[in-house]
Amino acid sequence: MNVGPYKFSEFKELAVKFHGYAAPGLLIGGYMTVAAKAALPDGVLFEALVETYNCLPDAVQLLTPCSTGNKRLHVVHYGKTALSLFDKYSGRGVRARVDPGLLGPRPEIRAWIMKEKGKEEQDEALLEQQIAEAGTTIIALQPVTVDLSRLNRKSDGPLAFCPRCGESFPAAHGGLCRGCAEGAPYSVPS
Amino acid sequence: MNVGPYKFSEFKELAVKFHGYAAPGLLIGGYMTVAAKAALPDGVLFEALVETYNCLPDAVQLLTPCSTGNKRLHVVHYGKTALSLFDKYSGRGVRARVDPGLLGPRPEIRAWIMKEKGKEEQDEALLEQQIAEAGTTIIALQPVTVDLSRLNRKSDGPLAFCPRCGESFPAAHGGLCRGCAEGAPYSVPS
Questions:
Q1: CATH architecture of the domain with range A154-190
Q2: Chain B interface, mutation test: which of A66, A186, A190, most B Cβ atoms within 10 Å?
Q3: What ipTM was predicted for this assembly?
Q4: pLDDT in tens, B135-152
Q5: Are the CB atoms for B88 and B146 separated by under 8 Å?
Q6: Which of A9, A6, A142 is nearest to A85 (CA)?
Q7: Among B59, B156, B184, beta carbon nearest to A79
Q8: How close does chain B come to A101, measured CA to CA in Å?
């Protein structure tokens, strides 16, 4: 089954180029994205909320205008193979996830999604074939309303200089930049 | 000045396609990424740590193999125009930021980076011209070591079914999935 405007093989190529390899989660995430998008009203300006950092965010970035750097892609670290696309202004939209009840006779997808096999036991060619054949038919959709106040959308506002590091930062963050206040995850080697 | 392998005009086209428009932050972020990459040893497998969600993450995604969905791109919400590229295994790398002291006679970049003007007062053509002319010369680099233990890199591990929503989630997260435990930022309309 095509992945939106792309043939399966074309989407795989895009995946390799952007993500490093055509990971199963990216291929399934492609169908999830396509299914959710098709369920939105035509022409709606939408954003995305993805419930895992694994692969799915890249499917959204390849198939929609939502990206990490334009802040239309939001990720929460729930470890769930699920994503929502929603109207930027009303929050109303659609959540897509793989429903195990829809898998039917596709044991390789089931084993992958439920992590029943280690990577070395996986039959990757068969898994890919089952994903391509299943397409959007294994995706369950449900209407959702996203609470827009909980997303990172605010402008940073006016800047100040941090008295500790001397660099500029959003004044609204407080007296010090967050790197100095919290301790940044990097250090300057002495 | 070229942006890595791309002519400035080509990089602008990529930016429009991926990000929606050729934002100044994405163009400057392109030079920051290129400068940091050039300072890494040849052939090192690297990841990225970006200190703002504004634009810069997309520059990294366009110019390196690091993406949100392959978890080689990490973002902290510091609101700082800075990014680091670092060795995936040792954490050693390079931090790039725009140093106001290097701007010289480029008032439009200074006004943009310090947010001295509203968007409507900005001379976008002049800003873009100054960015293209300045290239990497306005980027300050410093060696850093990233604390790898503070990055999101762990596998999710074995799954469990959430007794509340019935969906699968990483068992290590606790008795309930995080969506149910914390209250997900979406709701199913009644």
A1: 2-Layer Sandwich (3.30)
A2: A186
A3: 0.95
A4: 999 999 999 999 999 997
A5: no
A6: A142
A7: B156
A8: 11
